[in-house]
Peptidase M13 N-terminal domain-containing protein
Amino acid sequence: IGLYYGQTYFGPEAKADVEQMIRKILATYKARLQTNDWLTSSTQKQALKKLDAITLKIGYPDKLSDLYDQIQVSSEKSLYENIIAANQT
């Protein structure tokens, strides 16, 4: 549901805009860390390493997990029956 909601109300253009803003913020942090004079060298290196390890997760995933590809929902079954079937996958 989250993917479909996100694609409808937070489209690819909005997602790209947010990603661009976040990348600019990260670049600013990196520049400031590289030029600061109050951190020790080892602390500065660790902070840069941590900054580089950030994984962006914005809005919704680009595709559904392979797990969801295996789940089959039947309109002939109740919600409860579909949930039980999904949990057995």
